[in-house]
Structure formats: structure tokens, C-alpha cells
Amino acid sequence: MKNYYHVEKIFEALESAIAISTKKKFEYETDIRVSINPKTGEFDTFRRWLVVDEVKVPTKEITLEAAQFDDPNLQLGEYVEDQIESIAFDRIAMQTARQVISTKIREAERAKVVEQFREEEGKIVTGTVKKVSRDSIILDLGNKAEAMIAREDMLPRENFRPGDRVRGYFIK
Length: 172
Fold this sequence. Notes:
Helix content is 30%, strand content 30%. The protein has 172 residues and is an alpha+beta fold.
């Protein structure tokens, strides 16, 4: 089965990866936002400062008075952004981007599985025993999903071995 993801999630992962790679190019902690044009693939990079009452991290925050000097409509909690030059990807930046993208895709897969099984709550599900321990058994439900049945939720003297098929009421 092929994995399909929403295009927005993929672009979010790419933007996050480029932002993290860009942050690593700065000597000090900064807040970076990347915006990718989905039609052309071109991206813009912005350095951001959070508008606050009192600055605690000067490389990431700006006072309301200073922010309103350029834009009188800015409020607390909003961001001041300056477009900066996008980085040229070297080997390390590419490796960082690849790791971030992989992480974001795994998170999307996990969220998809959780959402799928939220719909199964209160229904009978079938799984294969993957692991047996003193306190519980772990079931493989398919689609990269696992379930745990605690020993106290089983019938007394009920024994399972890896590979056994089990049907149960899905709680949470």
C-alpha cells in the first residue's frame, strides 16, 4: 500500500526543514520562517522577532514600541519579519533537511494511524499477538498500529503465544 499525504503537510515539512537548516547558519539563536510557493517551488526566508513588552531574548524578540516604529498596527504576540537571503544548501544542510522531513513524515503517519483508530473506538478489532509479557500482550493491528491488552483486562488463566489471532473490544 502506498502512503499518500496531504500536499500541505509535505510543504510544511519542507518549510520546517529549510528553516532549521537556515537557523544553523546563524551564530546566535534566531527565529526563521520559510514560505514555499507550491506552484513554482521557489521559497522566501524571513527572520522573525516576536513583539513583547519586555525583551528577554534580543535575537528573537522586540519591544512593542520598537516594532510600531515601522508598523504602527503591530500588537503584542505578533511578529516583525525581515526577508533574508536564502541559504545555499551544502552537504550538512541537506542532511539536516532530510532528517527533519523524515521526522515530519513519521509524525504525519502516526497522526493518520491515531485518527484511523479513533473511529474504531467502541468496536471489535482483530490483531495478531506480537509480544507476550507478564503484565500485558502487544497486538499488531496492521497499518503500523499496535495495541496493548493489560493482564488485568484479560480473563483469568487466558494465555496467548506470539502469532495467535485475538479479537477484542477497542477502548482507547
